[in-house]
Specification:
The protein has three domains: 72 residues; 171 residues, Rossmann fold; 94 residues, Helicase, Ruva Protein, domain 3. By secondary structure, the protein is α/β, with parallel strands linked by helices. It is built from 16 helices and six strands. Bound molecules: adenosine-5'-diphosphate. The site of adenosine-5'-diphosphate has 17 residues, from helix 6, helix 11 and helix 13.
């Protein structure tokens, strides 16, 4: 049985690092190098005893080994780190980014059954994860990056969560915009830390939403920081560092505007899956998912579904539609609901919300309120892009 020694060892690490700094400031470079060697050895031990941080500890160990041997500290393009010889600090910085990366881990209990319609897309996604897992001849390489494109709210995030949920994989939910703005100028360090973390926690799925924000075609107004983040992601996609091919590390990138992606970026995502607006059957399925446990016998679901298709509703629109209709029914049956707010919570828990079967009238107002942002011209554009670039 492996014992987690990281707590004990990290105290020791702090102590030796301090001795290193002291020796360096006193100008005793021989002693400083010896201490750097001790730090590196300790990090290698920590990597052994802490599989969840193996890549991370090994990576920092390489830097300390360089310091110990008086070589320039490696600064791999792949890492995006800016370590320098004085780099007690950069180690702390790396630790900070690693913690931020770990905080992007979300638990996914979404299953394929939570997704209505999208049968073809679901099959393609299942295939992707199955191929990654199966034993296979060396020439058959699993997909490392898959692009999901289509109108907003069609279930791209949901598909990624279901892939992670079904594999019980570690799920990293990355919103490009927020990574770029929050860690401005340093986002590429976060991406490196994220992929280290993903390798340590494999099987892992890294989901990058709003991918277009990182990869505007021709990038005239793409900032240097954005370019760095993108190149960091692409390098990790190529999997240079992933020598152990039995580890699943899949990057799923999603975009609502695939035509904004640079062709060089596209080539790194050979599998591009079109997540379409739901058709009639899919609309009915999605509504059923979002009205679970309610009585829908009075509804003519196929007729409602037809109307939803005409209105170009996405899965998200359908979810909102059902919510609105349910609220209509709830207000109808529970006229003075707000007055119960005066009751203590324990009393509330003893009461039951009144419900009745949903009916067409509940949907009338909801239909008036929900408008799809997608136009016919948008759909044409998606179809055309799919014909040229979409691949299965
Ligand atoms: P996207 O990532 O494509 O913008 P999401 O996956 O975030 O869309 O979908 C938003 C929400 O809409 C989901 O959380 C889910 O509640 C609902 N939804 C979208 N598509 C579907 C679907 N096919 N089946 C069930 N619910 C869906």
């Amino acid at each position: 049985m492996k014992v987690d020694l990281s707590g004990v060892l990290s105290g020791e690490l702090d102590r030796i690092r301090k001795e290193y700094e002291e020796a360096k400031s006193a100008g005793d470079m021989d002693l400083a190098r010896q201490k750097a060697r001790n730090v590196a050895d300790l990090l290698r031990q920590m990597a052994q005893s802490t599989p969840a941080r193996q890549t991370y500890f090994n990576k920092i160990a390489v830097k300390w080994e360089a310091i110990a041997e008086g070589r320039p500290v490696p600064h791999p393009a792949t890492s995006g780190y800016t370590a320098t010889e004085s780099s007690g600090d950069s180690v702390d910085e790396e630790e900070g980014f690693r913690n931020k990366a770990d905080s992007l881990i979300t638990k996914s209990d979404v299953t394929w059954n939570d997704i209505g319609g999208l049968e073809r897309v679901k099959r393609l996604m299942m295939e992707t994860v199955v191929i990654a897992g199966l034993q296979k001849p060396a020439a058959i390489k699993p997909w490392k990056g898959v692009l999901l494109f289509g109108p907003p709210g069609t279930g791209k995030t949901l598909l990624a969560s279901a892939a992670a949920g079904s594999l019980q994989a570690t799920f990293y939910d990355v919103k490009s915009e927020s990574v770029l703005s929050k860690y401005f100028g340093e986002s590429s360090k976060l991406i490196s830390a994220l992929y280290d973390s993903a390798r340590d926690h494999a099987p892992s799925i890294v989901f990058i939403d709003e991918f277009d924000a990182l990869s505007q075609a021709r990038g005239d107004n793409t900032s240097e920081a954005t370019r760095k983040v993108l190149s960091s992601i692409l390098t990790h996609l190529d999997g240079l560092q992933d020598k152990k091919s039995d580890r699943l590390l899949l990057t799923l990138a999603a975009t609502n505007t695939p035509w904004e992606l640079d062709t060089a970026v596209l080539s790194r995502f050979p599998r591009r899956i079109y997540v379409t607006l739901p058709d009639k059957d899919a609309c009915a399925e999605i509504m059923a998912i979002h009205m679970k446990e309610l009585d829908v016998k009075k509804l003519d679901l196929p007729v409602l579904a037809e109307e939803c298709v005409e209105r170009r509703y996405s899965g998200r629109d359908l979810q909102n539609l059902c919510q609105q209709a349910m609220w209509h029914m709830i207000h109808d049956k529970n006229q003075n609901l707000h007055k119960l707010a005066e009751l203590p919570f324990a009393d509330l828990q003893k009461r039951k919300l009144k419900v009745r079967p949903l009916q067409r009238e509940d949907f009338d107002e909801a239909f008036d309120r929900i408008h799809s942002p997608v136009t016919k011209a948008d759909l044409k554009r998606f179809d055309k892009w799919n014909e040229t670039y979409g691949e299965v």
